[in-house]
Amino acid sequence: MHSSEQELFNHKIDQEVRIEPKDWMPEDYRRMLIRQMSQHAHSEIVGMLPEGNWITRAPSLRRKATLIAKVQDEAGHGLYLYSATETLGITRDETIEQLHAGKAKYSSIFNYPTLSWADIGAIGWLVDGAAIMNQVPLCRASYGPYARAMIRICKEESFHQRQGFEILLTLSRGSQAQKEMCQDAINRWWWPSLMMFGPNDDASPNSQRSMQWKIKRFTNDELRQKFVDVCVDQVKILGMGLPDKDLKWNAETGHYDFGEINWEEFYEVLKGNGPCNHERLEARKKAHAEGRWVREAAAAHSMKKNNLNTREIYGTQSAK
Ligand SMILES: [Fe+2]
Ligand SMILES: [Fe+2]
Known about the structure:
The protein is mostly helical. The chain has helices at residues 4-14, 27-46, 48-52, 61-86, 92-100, 117-135, 144-172, 176-195, 205-212, 220-238, 263-273, 277-290, 292-314, and strands spanning 248-250, 255-257. Helix 6 (117-135) runs antiparallel to helix 7, helix 6 (117-135) runs parallel beside helix 8 (176-195) and helix 6 packs antiparallel against helix 10 (220-238). The termini are far apart. The model has no long low-confidence stretch (mean pLDDT 94). One fe (ii) ion binds at residues 74, 128, 131, 157, 160.
């Protein structure tokens, strides 16, 4: 049975008309968005941790200021996305509770450790680079609040990608030890970055649905291939290599072929068995608990301000 609401929804999707919070939408569409957007928000916030680890050890004041700005941007991305998720009828407390209970995921890439300063460069170049590849098409996602949040986020992500690349470029022109540090970071971050695009298309059952609803515009494998093609060119500028002996140009497809991803590692990290899963979740829970008084103070302040405004509007005397 097709309701007229369902038909109207289908028509909007078909005509590229955005779905807005108060519009009718199928329950599965709402659920898919809550899952994707809240996990995206969690990724932004958890993603601050590996890089925050290097703020006090950044090699110069300029690097420190840039890294602080970058990590702060990620907090902002998390906030836009939590707010956008709330428009779907779930509270921020609920989404954060799901993260802390281990029910909601965040990007597995943040379960890898940052061992050297070069990792900060590799994260900017590869991790933010992969995020951009994923997120630029989301600026056209069918759900309005998500698409609009992504436009602003993508502008900042492009700054993140450049600052990372510039860190690696500087190292690649430095001493022998710096060059080796640069290559080592690329070697460790390359494969986990490719995993950021998710399972292969034939192992990704939700993808099809998401494409039909125009949340996703490209499949995991399409985005991963685009990313590989871009990185092969960029790594040449660094004078570095990518750790894949099967990487080679394929004139027939017009793309670079690349080696098999270690899916066993992918699923292990996803299950919670990566090098830093436990540490990341504990850090988030601790920060949430320690920030409780700030949230309470902010809530009390805004309540007080609202009361004052009400008195002004209605001209009632406030008690002295
Ligand atoms: Fe971000
Ligand atoms: Fe970023």
